[in-house]
Amino acid sequence: MAKKKVDDKSSQNDGNTKSDGDLSSNDEEPNFSDPEGFVDDITDEELLGDILKQKPKETDGVESVIVVDGVPQVGPNRLEKLKSVINKVFVKFGNIVNEYYPVTPEGTTKGYIFIEYSSPVHAAEAVKVTNNFKLDKQHTFQVNLFTDFAKYELIPIKWDPPEPQPYQGQADLHYYLLEPDAYDQFAVVTAQGQSVQIWQNTQPDPVVIEERNNWTQTYIKWSPLGTYLSTFHKLGIALWAGPNFSQYKRFAHVGVQFIDFSPCEKYLVTYSPQGDPHNPDMKRIIIWDIRTGLEKRSFNPEGPTAWPIFRWSHDDKYFARIGSNNDALQVYETPSFGLLDKKSIKINGIRDFNWSPTDNVVAYWVAEDKDVPASVTLLEFPNRNEIRKKNLFNVADCKIHWQKSGDYLCVKVDRYSKVRKEKNETKYSGVYCNFEVFHMKEKQIPVDSVECKEPIQAFAWEPVGSKFAMIHGESPNINVSFYEVRVGQAPILLKKFEKRACNHLFWSPGGQFIVLAGLGSNGGGSLEFVDTHEFLIMNSTDHYQMSDVEWDPTGRYVITGVSFWKTKVDTGYWIWSFQGKILKRVNLEKFAQILWRPRPPTLLSEEKQKEIKKNLKKYYPQFESKDRMRQSKASKELIEKRAALMEKFQSHREQRIKEWMENKARRLALRNNIDTDELDADTENVEEEVVEFFIKEEVTVLE
Amino acid sequence: MKPILLHGHERAITQIKYNREGDLLFSASKDNKPNVWYSLNGERLGTFNGHQGAVWCIDVDWTTTKFMSGAGDNTFKIWDCETGREIGNIQTASSVRTCLFSYSANMAVYTTDKAMKQPCEMFIIDTRTIDDSISVQDPIMRIPVKGPRVSAILWDNVEEMIITGHENGELTQWDLKTGKQLSSVKEHDNIINDMQWNKDGTMFITASKDHTAKLFDSESLMLLKTYKTERPVNSAAVSPIFEHVVLGGGQDAMDVTTTSTRIGKFDSRFLPYGI
């Protein structure tokens, strides 16, 4: 404050001296004074802008002042000592411009002091650090900004309730489901997120409905029900939704690389494997509430773990992970985000677990330990009842596969006949495979076993229905087998395709149809579209170097892609019908990722679905005529467009040919008046030449 | 139609050309010796011996009396077609990459590479009488080409302008009266491997490593049509009788060993051109 006054004064002085100068001018000197009516058009900013910047503001002083309470009360004799102690504490935060120790008439300090820093930033820092600072046993500092006193004094006594904010209706997040022809959407990413396109798979040709450059920095992910599109950025995740893909929420998490949605889209788990080097306090896993955008809980994972570390129950009620030493299953509940019953479940040697897709049941398996055999256990939540347990012997590894409708559980058990311990590694030999099928919907959950002596390449449940498929055998004798599980029966082999060139299985989301695919550089890109109703191979084809196969959520289309992430040539995606008929080939440079937008499960009751299936014949003609109309309209438009282009080109050609004809004389002049426009244009100059070639020699011996 | 295989070159072919009547086929390769063949049966008529380096470019005049070649041995040679005798030789500062006779064959043009600290240059020489003096004669015109080297060249049929295709995909039109650049367009993103006129010289087609071939108007350099493929295009031509273009190309020779024949796409394609 004092500083400001001095400044004010000096500026006034400046004005005075100037006028003094004017007064002292005598006649001999030229008159420097402004003529009458002169208006100074140079502003102060132009003249001394750099100095004006330093001009103190009234608030500077007040905001830089802090009030320290709880200072020891001392007499004048010890004031200097106190000052040095106080100085030591507060000088750390910045340059102290001014300090004031109020004293009583007797000269003892009053127990509170004022300190002024050169900048409000320093004052704020001092308050943050030294508030509640313990000087000694009797004295604890209460530090506040000077302005805070004014702020709290000014609180009105009468309280006005806050104005209710007008409700901002948000756009319909499910608009895409209202598309009358039930066209699905898919997203295409090219070259490290440089461009993201959202396509509508309309007939006969898909159309782009949204295209943005640099929408994501790495890849994209749809939420499981298709409501949100998530994009990855250095600083976190952004979710986009609604008709124009407007930004829905942002989740700041530096260096995020992996995300996982809870099945009902209530929560989002983000994982930043490296964390933030500038902010070591940031946890590497954060769980967010999607609708509020608030952080619910955060974790730091211990040791390397497979993503997703947390697995969600189907209704978002629980999420669980395996404890750090494989000795416990930690189940958390929502919305409290605390451990269920405040303790984890001790399971020594737990190796892997999975939630049922329809019930709150966890299947986990435990490796064998000395005399205790390995086992697979089904645990019900929240009551922690063990509803089924099966012991297994000679187990090397297990994989837990739930059928999508939760009716069956298949545990693929890799078993060995011999085991050797070499140093710290366990080596298994004579490995074969068992499939343990749990009938979840039957009493006491009976378990059936299928044995397979060959190595298993892939296994997949039919999403709807009771079949499963597996690829087994070693190259070149790769076989594909289909089994069916029936009530009260062991699984029966339905069909075995022998000598196939595939390594992945892709069931249609609606069941019945399956694509057998050879992915990657070893797979050769083979494709077989199979109807498992009668085991008919509908089409057998290939997409060379194919890296992805994606069914649309309704099971009507399949997209195969060659991603730039895997190979550099011939990247792009092809669209097929479910029968394996090629519909479109899109060759796209630096094509990276393609994803169909998921759909939530149907709202129709089972009876209604059955009824529709039964009356399908009735609907066929409607759709077919619609398709035909669209087709003919599109081809008509195309023909018209082409005709217009051709016409334009032809008129241009005619013009140019006319010019060419006009130049004929010049051409003739250049070539000695010989017309060379056509090979035989100049008949007089043609000279016939007979060239004889030696073609064949035949020697015939005459008797 | 049966293909005729021409066995005669020992290294990669760099350029082939028919004479005007189409009865003779000239070929150049990296093995230093251009060849000439009967196109009817593939019999070799003779070779042009004298180059010490890879022959990059050849051309034959409209009367099939003179033949010329430019090579990596920094020479540009003119030959008598009938005898195969070297009748003219010009020493250059760097490799000769392209060469062409004018419509009347009274002039010829050749371009040199931007290499060995030499800039890319275009030379226009008088070819009415050719003898030993040609090596010391000054060219009619010497045009320095700033920027990337010329990789393909065309000369119009009234001898007014030259169109050059460049290593970076640029096309430039030169006025021969002044030696100045008339206009320039950049429609390709990679080297232009070849350029060819249509029959009447009002349009030309370019073949580029950027996986496309493009049809241009010769006067305005206006892009008329783009033909997209998935592989580098090495050569392209416009049919003289039908509304077709043909493109030839495929994987780079150096990448061939890493690709299977099935996906190499070493094929020719016929495409309609108007639309």
UniProtKB/TrEMBL annotation, chain A:
Positions of region (Disordered): 1-39
Role this protein plays: RNA-binding component of the eukaryotic translation initiation factor 3 (eIF-3) complex, which is involved in protein synthesis of a specialized repertoire of mRNAs and, together with other initiation factors, stimulates binding of mRNA and methionyl-tRNAi to the 40S ribosome. The eIF-3 complex specifically targets and initiates translation of a subset of mRNAs involved in cell proliferation.
Domain RRM: 64-148
Key word Iron-sulfur present: no
The entry's keywords: Cytoplasm, Initiation factor, Protein biosynthesis, Repeat, RNA-binding, WD repeat
Gene3D superfamilies: 3.30.70.330, YVTN repeat-like/Quinoprotein amine dehydrogenase
Source organism phylogeny: Eukaryota, Metazoa, Ecdysozoa, Arthropoda, Hexapoda
This protein's record includes keyword Cytoplasm: yes
Species of the source: Molorchus minor
Annotated localization: Cytoplasm
Complex and partners: Component of the eukaryotic translation initiation factor 3 (eIF-3) complex. The eIF-3 complex interacts with pix. Interacts with mxt.
Composition bias type Acidic residues, residue spans: 25-39
Residue stretches of biased makeup (Basic and acidic residues): 1-21
The protein, known as: Eukaryotic translation initiation factor 3 subunit B
Family, similarity comment: Belongs to the eIF-3 subunit B family.
TrEMBL record, chain B:
Pfam families assigned to the protein according to its UniProt record, in alphabetical order: EIF3I (PF24805)
Residues in WD repeats: 6-47, 48-89, 185-226
Family matches, as Gene3D superfamilies: YVTN repeat-like/Quinoprotein amine dehydrogenase
Repeat in keyword set: yes
InterPro entries, alphabetized: eIF3i, WD40/YVTN_repeat-like_dom_sf, WD40_repeat_dom_sf, WD40_rpt
UniProt keyword terms in alphabetical order: Cytoplasm, Initiation factor, Protein biosynthesis, Repeat, WD repeat
The family this protein is said to belong to: Belongs to the WD repeat STRAP family.
UniProt-listed PANTHER family: EUKARYOTIC TRANSLATION INITIATION FACTOR 3 SUBUNIT I
Stated name of the protein: Serine-threonine kinase receptor-associated protein
